Amino acid sequence: MSAGDPLSSDSLFQSAFEFAAIGMALVSLEGKWLRVNRSICKITGYSEAELLARTFQDITHPDDLEADLENVRKMLAGEIDTYQMEKRYFHKNGSIVWILLSVSLVRTKSGEPLFFIGQIQDITRQKKSEEELAKAAAEIQRLQKRLLKICTWTKRIQVDGKWIPIDEFLTRNLHLKLTPSTSVPRGPSPSED
Asked: What is the pTM assigned to this prediction?
């Protein structure tokens, strides 16, 4: 293969790096962006030139920075070979972007650290969905506890100003078909206020 050959190893690496579907970056030992691809620019909102003028520390959320730097320290000390973590970046527009970061360290033949290779995937939608599901689950649990307290205390529930047996409420409103073993025995009607 000649140097101008589009299938040369250099050309293939350049294309694979630049057109990767996930963010790819080469980062100095101090955290300066050395090379970034289109995907990481899209994830962060910064142009290539803007990122190259910054460090990863500049755009990392302060609550995530210590854990990230500790992983870098361990990698440089030879305690770990790679690491992966979820963390937040500040997008250029000020919003928070959740990412899944995978990092490895390139060393010389003699073992001296050269630079980091970072792979960055945008997981913001996934994190928002997880947050919404957690909120919904907490609300369902809160409502269930409240409903159970009402059910065990009165054996009846007030719906639209009328007291009805819990069995009827569960069947009509929650579409639960109760068997005799799950049925709530009728108690005396509570007095209306």
From this structure: 0.66
